[in-house]
């Protein structure tokens, strides 16, 4: 595929910034500097689409674009909106972004994108079994990958434990708002990880999101028997995973016999 030479564009929609860069999918590295545009206040669909248009125009390239979204994504539609405007729920965001970018867009959940990137190029590289990535930022995202295959939209940040939802209790945003020490935060996250261990028996936990670059501060406070690693690609995992998914989808479409192709492919 020709996209490897110039890179495939990945765009990561976050609560405070929308970041994009072309990605070299051989190495999982960004090609050049990533560009960041602040997320429009309220993160309404039309305004976010305008940023996707700008990034796509500025960063160039001809191929597909991968875009992450901080909510459930199925069949190109955004189906939940825990930390963004509620008008995303049920929206055909894939089409909205494809029209904005003027190129085919593949949309996927932000944590799923980070998980795919970490499994391929980062902390999970070479791990054969079950990888569970958790991102701690404004929300808590999750990705479950087994033998390289992603089970999308696991949404384990919304799990209820001890009578409360985990996300508003243990996210990095909550840690900052409540001015919790890393030790206090670890006391909230540890029972959550132990619960996930009991439910999924992962071979590796990867801790991503904003906290991943401060692993030396929290590592000792997360007490689990499963091996645990901070994300290797840190803030870039979403961009890389989005580009990877877009390229894989394009490859699959290129190899689908025209006869068997659906109109939407
Ligand atoms: C959303 C997830 C998302 C996570 C991190 C949660 O509130 O429900 O879909 O992955 O935040 O952005």
UniProtKB/TrEMBL annotation:
Keywords: Transferase. Its EC number is 2.7.1.63. GO terms for molecular function: polyphosphate-glucose phosphotransferase activity. It holds the Pfam family ROK. Gene3D superfamilies: 3.30.420.40. InterPro entries: ATPase_NBD (IPR043129), ROK (IPR000600). PANTHER family: POLYPHOSPHATE GLUCOKINASE (PTHR18964:SF146), ROK (REPRESSOR, ORF, KINASE) FAMILY (PTHR18964). This is Polyphosphate--glucose phosphotransferase. It is an enzyme of class 2 (transferase).
């Amino acid at each position: 595929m020709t996209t490897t030479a110039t890179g495939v564009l990945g765009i990561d929609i976050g609560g405070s910034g929308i970041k994009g860069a072309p990605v070299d999918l051989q190495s999982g590295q960004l090609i050049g500097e990533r560009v960041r545009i602040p997320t429009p206040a309220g993160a309404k669909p039309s305004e976010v689409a305008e940023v996707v248009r700008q990034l796509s125009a500025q960063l160039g390239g001809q191929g597909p674009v991968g875009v992450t979204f901080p909510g459930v994504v199925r069949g190109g539609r955004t189906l939940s909106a825990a930390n963004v405007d509620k008008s995303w729920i049920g929206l055909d965001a894939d089409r909205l972004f494809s029209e904005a970018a003027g190129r085919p867009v593949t949309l996927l959940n932000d944590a799923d994108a980070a998980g795919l990137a970490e499994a391929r190029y980062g902390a999970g590289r070479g791990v054969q079994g079950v990888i569970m990535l958790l991102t701690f930022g404004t929300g808590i995202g999750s990705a479950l990958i087994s033998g390289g295959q992603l089970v999308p939209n696991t949404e384990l940040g919304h799990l209820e434990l001890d009578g409360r939802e985990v996300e508003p209790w243990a996210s990095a945003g909550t840690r900052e708002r409540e001015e919790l020490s890393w030790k206090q935060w670890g006391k909230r996250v540890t029972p959550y990880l132990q619960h996930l261990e009991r439910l999924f028996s992962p071979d590796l936990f990867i801790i991503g999101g904003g906290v991943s670059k401060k692993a030396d501060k929290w590592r000792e406070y997360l007490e689990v028997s499963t091996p645990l690693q901070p994300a290797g690609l840190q803030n870039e995992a979403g961009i890389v995973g989005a580009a990877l998914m877009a390229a894989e989808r394009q490859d699959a479409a290129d190899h689908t016999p025209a006869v068997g192709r659906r109109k939407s492919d």
